Amino acid sequence: MYIYLLGVTTVRDAFIKDYNGLMLVRLLILSEKYDLATKLVEHYPDMAKADPNERSPLMELAKKEFALLRGDGLNSWQRLLFRYVPIRSTSEGQKRIPTDIENVSNEPQMFNAKNCWLSPIWERIYFGALITKLGGLPFDVLERLVPPLKLIRDKKSKYYNAVKLVECLCKKIESLSYVEVHRIAGAPLLAAAKNDNYELVEAIVRKFPSLIYMNDIETEKNIFHLAVEHRCENVFNLVHRMSQHRDLLMQSIDSSGNTMLHLAAKLAPKNKLNLVAGAALQMQRELQWFKENIN
Length: 295
Fold this sequence. Notes:
The chain has helices at residues 2-8, 13-16, 20-30, 34-43, 57-63, 66-69, 76-84, 120-134, 139-145, 148-172, 178-194, 198-207, 223-229, 233-240, 243-251, 260-265, 270-273, 279-294, and strands at residues 87-88, 96-97. It has 295 residues and is mainly α. The chain has a two-stranded antiparallel sheet.
């Protein structure tokens, strides 16, 4: 309905006046209509900013569990399907973004599938033979024949569109002053580090490298501290690969005088600790975190 109104009216200021546009984009994110939110932000860049209470679309995305969208927790076959199913728009089901095995150039920069147990060569051979055998059936037909495909396809589409929205939001605020960028993207960066949303961390740091040294106002923890404290391995690995920033971040201490080793020595949050069953395996995992921080 909103897209229709935009198409038939010439008075559009009302849609974005008094932060109504910001609220609309945030509501679309809560409803997981990421592609529609992206279209609005592309047409109205002010929708990428923050309101006087520093509520912004980036903060709403930072609160999202990207792990559920990116396919974490899927078994081996599901991960393979996740990698190769075509992407569908989350809010306009009939318009699909075409993908194929060889060409993924249209995908967001950090959008990729992990933990596949087949090598790329064997994947291409296997799925090439499978596609040939299916005779080029439309994927909509395959979804009806194999219902689990629809769930995996919807998950991948939401993840794809969420990552595209993150990149779009960062691009729209790129021309703002450092103070404005800090106000809009700083808090979401720290929140994303706590939630292991490495996609958002990567997008913000790539556009605004200086924000990587940002600390939480109350605790003075940086994103490396938060990744260790909350056992966010994806964010930890991402920052660990940034050798030009890593050493400075590791040497920092928080407001309580804790180094990263102190935070690694503390017990993990229950939601992360309970991912591994049994006290022995939990202790082993905690020791691995401590050893990683020593190295």
